[in-house]
Amino acid sequence: MIRTPLRPLARILDARAKGENPDAIENENRRIRHEQMRDRDRNRAEGRLLVLGVFFFCAFAVVGARMGLLAVSEPMEPRAQAPGSIISNTRADIVDRNGSILATNFDTHALYAQPPHLIDPEGAVGKLVEIFPALDAERLIKDFTGKRKFLWVKKKISAEQMQAVHDIGDPGLLFAPRDMRLYPNGELAAHIMGGASFGREGVRAAEVIGVAGVEKYFDDYLSDPANAGKPLELSLDLSVQAASERVLNGGMKLMNAKGATSILMDVHTGEVISVTSLPAFNPNNRPRPAVQGDPSDSPLFNRSVQGVYELGSTFKIFAAAQAMELGLVNANTMIDTAGPMKVGGHRIGEFRNKNYGTLSVSQIIEKSSNRGTGRLALMIGKERQQEFLRSLGLFDKTPFEIVEASGGKPLLPSKYTDLSAVTISYGHGLSTTAMHLAAAYAAIANGGRVVKPTLVKQSGPQMGARVMREDVAAAARAMLRDVVVGDDGTASFAEVPGYFIAGKTGTADKPNPRGGGYYKDKTITTFASMFPAHDPRYVLVVTLDEPVETSSDKPRRTAGWTAVPIAAEMVRRVAPLLGMRPAIEPAPLAGITLTSSN
Q: Can you tell me whether residue 232 is helix, strand or coil?
């Protein structure tokens, strides 16, 4: 910058020549310089104020825009953060078909300790053991007085326990917020719920993950924050489930059974309205899995989808239905069931060595003749039998929405021979689950269409491919009705006035896993039924493990004495809950002529 001198020589000389005071020139130049400096500083200050004003305007505009955006946007579920990761503490509820809560979240706390901050470690341990008697005092003292800087004391504590710990007053005992998975119905539907546990954990939050049942199968859906307000809606009916469990539990004890399962399924949608497995457990305090012994001895064992058994004579209706579907017989076709009968060098006998002689196909089902269904199987042929049973889903894992269902794959003979076809026709040589059987009976009940069992509420019928004609399904249902009301039916105890039960009993000797062969005094008894028989809406399967009915001098272990009465009582209890009223069974008006009154 070029500075103008305050005393320019030319002007000074000129002023002296004229007799003027040179100091006036300097003062004038100084005044002009100061005015220029003042104007320059003012312009600079005004520029800075303008820039600052623009900055504040932009900042307030951004804040205002963000506030407006938040005001009009959808609310988002907050996430709790832990060091190094983000832990979602949201999990969707699970409800039944009517919206009743089956599983939800509950705010609780975990207790942890920071030993370096403990004032009186031993005193704190003594008071903690009084509050939590299950704690190991010696182990806790070792941890509190050692080199550890952090340890969990209890992962879940109640509000009362939290207050009691707070009253200890030691700054080294701290609390971490938690979302605990709560099952308000306790053991009800325990095997379906499965249970949940903590996954990733931090001091500020813990992730809840499913460990079994629907909790694990639908874990991705339940843990997605976008579904926090959208509960998982199951097909179960809580009131029907409660009644079913109560009846089955009482029946299991009355029949001295080791375990039991029941399945109630809608025959048009495949929706499972109730499914019970006993003994049960409380998912709020899920026991540890058994590491040795028979898995079925554990209360965690789900007999409805994991219990793979030979289901005995309940399979006989499949042989009759297929034979009618192929046009080989009809309900009145006479079949010689007299012995002896040998297939593949093995003798085929009847229950208690009975000899029924010649029976119609309907009577074969009513009397439960092994030889009768065996001869139907030989007429059908092993290849066609396999194709039919596979179409009913009896060869594959059931597509049921709990993780345990994947372990219930049917056990097939290693070599499918004519003998296999005969024994499978009356329920031996092929082991399946009660859920497989319920789905197969649903195909007969709904007029011949396959349905897949599901735990998810459906909006309408979900029937698949046709496996038998409607007239064949109707004839099969009539045979099953005769099993209940016929003079020689094996399920006479099943009749419930007004609900018209149709079904088939099945009694199978229980395999001996140690010595091979079968136990002589242990059975698996099953009653597979549908109601009402003339227009079935539901299939009910009841299976008992090692039942013994002891009301007489001689113990009785057949399904007619054990599973059937329980199924009848279950229908009596749950049918009104399903909105079904007792009715009069429709029948033709034989011998009545309608005439005009005029």
A: strand
Whether residue 473 has pLDDT greater than 60 = yes
What distance, in Å, lies between the first and last C-alpha atoms of the chain? 132
Q: How confident is the model at residue 598 (pLDDT cuts 50, 70, 90)?
A: very low
The predicted model scores a pTM of 0.80
Task: List the one residue out of 494, 487, 502, 470 whose CA is nearest residue 585.
Answer: 502
- Which of helix, strand or coil describes residue 342? strand
Phi, psi (deg, nearest 5) at residue 122: -65, -40
* H/E stretch holding 573: helix 563-577
DSSP-derived 3-state class of residue 577: helix
- In whole angstroms, give the CA distance from residue 396 to residue 548: 32
Measured CA angle at 477 (ends 241, 432), to 5 deg: 55
| Backbone φ, ψ for residue 530 (5° rounding) | -145, 155
Lowest mean pLDDT among 24-33, 516-525, 553-562: 24-33
> How far, in Å, are 400, 407, 432, 464, 488 from residue 268 at the CA level?
16, 26, 22, 10, 31
* CB contact burial 501-527 (16+ within 10 A = b; e otherwise): bbbbbbbbbbbeeeeeeeeeebbbbbb
SS (H, E, C) 271-315: EEEEEEEECCCCHHHCCCCCCCCCHHHCCCCCCCCCCCEECHHHH
Provide the pLDDT for residue 162: 92
Closest C-alpha to 205, from 78, 80, 77, 76? 80
What is the average pLDDT across 45-58?
A: 88
Place of tokens 């100084």: 30
**Using CA atoms, how far apart are residues 86 and 200, in angstroms rounded to an integer?**
9
pLDDT band of residue 78 (cuts 50, 70, 90) is very low
Specify burial of residue 85 (Cβ count, 10 A radius: 0-12, 13-18, 19+): exposed
Instruction: Report the alpha-carbon distance of residue 287 to residue 267 in Å, rounded.
Output: 34
Residue in the structure block whose two tokens are 């340890």 = 151
Residue ranges of domains in the chain, CATH in brackets: 83-233 (3.90.1310.10), 239-286+296-577 (3.40.710.10)
CB 346 within 8 A of CB 420: no
> Which range, 147-156, 203-212, 317-326, 349-358, has the best average confidence (pLDDT)?
317-326
Using CA atoms of 506, 507, 511, 516 in order, give the dihedral in degrees to the nearest 10.
Answer: -120
pLDDT digits (tens, 9 = 90+) for 130-177: 999 989 999 999 999 988 899 889 988 888 999 999 999 999 999 988
Task: Find, among 28, 21, 35, the residue nearest to 5 by Cα.
Answer: 28
In the predicted model, is pLDDT for residue 596 greater than 50?
Answer: no
Q: What is the CA radius of gyration of the chain?
A: 40
